[in-house]
Amino acid sequence: MSNDLNNRPKIVVIGGGTGLPVILKSLKEKNVDITAIVTVADDGGSSGKIRNYMDVVPPGDIRNVLVSLSDLPKLDLDLFQYRFNNGDEFLSGHSIGNLIIAALTEMKNGVDNAVEIISKMMKVNGHVYPASSQDLQLCAEFDDGTKMAGEYEITYADKNIKHVWVENISSDEQPKTNQKVIDAIMNADQIVLGPGSLFTSILPNLMIENLGHAVINSPSKVVYICNIMTQKGETDHFTDADHVKVLNRHLGCNFIDVVLVNNASIPNNYIDKIKWNEISKQVTHDKVGLEKQHCKVIQDNFLKLSDDCAFHNGKLVSDTLIKLINNKDWSD
């Protein structure tokens, strides 16, 4: 791989939640040009409160991505991530980073400008773009025909999700992304989706019409990092093929080229479901279902067991992504 910074492979990673920073942190150590496109549909916790009070894009997922790509010392990052405890009545639950992003959004007339400035301040190794600068809301239709708005409400509705889309809260304007996001996608050597919540972290980005069209029309390969565990309220009982089927159905074509699937088993009773407030099972592999969708499957031990839960091993995943770019036997 060339040492010329201008010739580094361009990898665009799209998603949100806690899974995306794990992959970005490891990719940062590679000789690649990273662009992270981050969901803006979160409406829970500190992000949701800030959005409601200040009418700004929810900053939480953006904050975590900035930290994962930052070269600042640990103390600086810990301060940026610091969340006030419940004893602080006025600031309870808010992180300093969320407040800084919100303040700069107000000062500099928009979240795009704010993230650009913070990226320089935090010595971010890559590019971070909100999926949209508009105030978007996630909406869903369930199998029973009912509809609901709001990412938090959808996740905890305890219903099977049929379809999701995004709407512009403050106007009738069609949700859209900016030209920098489109250019990054169209010029990418590889587009990576996930890992993350299928309906609430990945699809909200792809449901922005011009962003989704760019992913479909980009000449680069699209790689989906399949979740290791199902997610209650979103993907109960899903196989890996079911995840891909939902993505393809939402965009109207089989656009997923490669799927990374973990094949290592999680020990019985390892996950502390009370601690993580999560009732989930390991995603099962459906080879035939994936083959029917014409995508290449790469199985490996991508599992990292830590803190009584199951995560992706960022280093192993990033190593595989680089091999996909360099190895024609894998990418063609």
Describe the structure.
Helix content is 38%, strand content 18%. It has 332 residues and is of the alpha/beta class. It folds into 2 domains: 5-39 and 174-331, Rossmann fold (3-Layer(aba) Sandwich); 43-130, no CATH class. The strands form 3 sheets. Strands 3-2-1-7-8-9-10 form a 7-stranded parallel beta sheet, with helices on both faces. A 3-stranded antiparallel beta sheet has the order 5-4-6. A two-stranded antiparallel sheet has the order 11-12. Helix 1 (19-27) links the parallel strand 1 and strand 2.
Helix content: 25-40%
What is the CATH C-level name of the largest domain? Alpha Beta
Principal-axis shape equals: globular
Tally of domains: 2
Strand and helix map with partners:
Blueprint: E1 10-15, H1 19-27, E2 33-38, H2 45-54, H3 60-69, H4 74-81, H5 96-107, H6 111-121, E3 127-130, E4 136-142, E5 147-149, H7 151-155, E6 161-168, H8 179-186, E7 190-193, H9 198-206, H10 209-217, E8 221-225, H11 240-251, E9 258-262, H12 287-291, E10 296-300, E11 303-306, E12 309-312, H13 314-326, H14 328-331
Helix pairs in contact: 1-3, 1-13, 5-6, 8-10
